[in-house]
């Protein structure tokens, strides 16, 4: 017998999951608070299909990114959606960064990143990126770019074609567990489901509280602001140029990405957002900010990362500081080449009581409710594989008890 399954969240993960469930015959309803799909992280990201270079071998990020990349490439091919393998160079600018680059190379090989190569010497680097500076790099030729909002819409068409329902403008305001079932209260409707899956991104901890789940991890919203290269200077970057990331921090540092529409994005940075959906500095929610400040993990986190925080905030407010970081990779870059944009995304980064930022994807189960509690990058890349993982590990097959 088909099950009635509710999904909160019309980002790429909620919709990928709805697609997989409706294909197996479940009666699926997606509840999304916005008037369109993919209005938060999914529609405000770098559009990169990661090949799995950084993630701890054996982690969910490593395994689901590898499977998700292949599945996404096949999906785009089947739907004739743009998918371009522009390739990525992770660059050690000087000798001090080489040991960390070696570790990225080791992880990449263990994660089975396809056709990865090690490049030493600036002359060889410039065969791939003619304007780059550096002493060594790893090159991943199959790292690609896509448009995740368009992909989400294509997945949604499959959901509708299989009889699933996608309700836009339906903000969930309460969830009650009743005799093994779930009653979901939305602004203007009420629904009863056999199972509920929460893929609510920046609001995932709010919904977790509705069902009485552990308040930890909480969501710490981190904004990523984008700059871009002036169109006449976009030829400074062919594909993607990334720094060797700081392993203590879950974000990747200043990088250059030639997106699917041929704009070269620079960024995103990582600054604390003053509201869950704080896409710019002036968008402040006293409630969200106060909740973050009084979280037990606030001081341990501030103590550990304050230098990085000051550095990122300064770069956000003062162009010369950001420019200096970017120019390390491309010495020909001039200040006017770097243009500020209005584009920004807010990352839903899960944060424990002890102040630690959760690294891996994380899922909780409360009775019939499955909560996706941490799905940061590369979760868009991994979306189809995350859907399969949730079904295999958290949702019994149709007909089973
Ligand atoms: C700046 C930035 C750059 C990134 N770059 C990449 C990248 O290049 N590659 C990559 O793989 N990943 C990247 N990511 C990560 C990726 O975008 C996310 O991991 C992914 O989009 C998560 O999808 P989601 O469906 O969980 O969340 P979301 O897309 O945030 O969707 C959650 C949805 O839930 C809805 N919702 C919330 N509360 C309610 C409620 N009460 N009722 C109804 N609906 C609700 C929201 O409106 C939203 O639409 C990036 C993220 C950011 C922010």
UniProtKB/TrEMBL annotation:
SUPFAM superfamilies, per the entry: FAD/NAD(P)-binding domain
Classification via Pfam families: DAO (PF01266)
InterPro entries, alphabetized: FAD-dep_OxRdtase, FAD/NAD-bd_sf
One annotated GO molecular function: (S)-2-hydroxyglutarate dehydrogenase activity
Keywords linked to the UniProt accession: FAD, Flavoprotein, Oxidoreductase
Family from the record: Belongs to the L2HGDH family.
Protein name: L-2-hydroxyglutarate oxidase LhgO
Source species taxonomy: Bacteria, Bacillati, Actinomycetota, Actinomycetes, Micrococcales
